[in-house]
Amino acid sequence: MLKGLDIPGEILGTVKDAATQEAIEGARIEVCSTTSGVVRICHCTENGEFGAANLDEGEYRIEVSAEDYNNGVEYVYVADEQANVAILLTPTTAPLGDILGVLLDDSTDEPIAGAEVTATPVGGGASMHETTDATGSFMCEDLLYGDYTVLAEASGYKREDKTVILNAAEVSVELRLKPKNPPSLFR
Questions:
Q1: Region 132-147: what's the mean pLDDT?
Q2: Span 14-54, pLDDT tens digits
Q3: Which of 10, 18, 64, 113 would suit a FRET pair with 34, their CA atoms being 20 to 30 Å apart?
Q4: Confidence (pLDDT) at 3
């Protein structure tokens, strides 16, 4: 029961195709409390919608399966009367590729370690977040073919983004960040 009330919580969600954003009708939803282990099973409507009601407060693991799609897993915490979740499934036949990249200081050509890099599908969908290693390298793996906005951010630098077309098993990108306050020549 939530917040001392006799009103249980619920999870409402949608399941869509990650490539087309179309609803997936009939997907099997398994909602499992990570605390008690209690499992509820439901299926998506023709609009890709599902719901699980009468849930106690806590964390829930939502596993989604549908024919011709890779399974999807999301975690959601039910703390209010309603928790919402959107789940994207990738088709089992969808081509996947990797974006390999390097992040460099535009003024020194030195690699930038510890920077945050995000690859987001141009048409919308789930983003992938990575951190650059000591050589300024990053890899966003197992992405659906398509156009992505790759955004890099690091402390002391201006943000930079670039559109990348992922149409092969591996696509490379170089991003160069400009320092926010470049050293002055006249000091």
A1: 94
A2: 999 987 889 999 999 999 999 998 899 999 999 999 999 98
A3: 18
A4: 46
CATH class of this structure's domain 96-177: mainly beta
In DSSP notation, the chain reads: --TTSS--EEEEEEEEETTT--B-TT-EEEEEETTT--EEEEE--TTSEEEEEEE-SEEEEEEEE-TTB--EEEEEEE-SSEEEEEEEE-BTT--EEEEEEEEEETTT--B-TT-EEEEEETT----EEEE--TTSEEEEEEEESEEEEEEEE-TTB--EEEEEEE-SSEEEEEEEEPBSSPPPS--
CATH homologous superfamily for the domain 9-89 = Immunoglobulins (2.60.40.10)
Q: Which pair of structure tokens corresponds to residue 125?
A: 């969908």
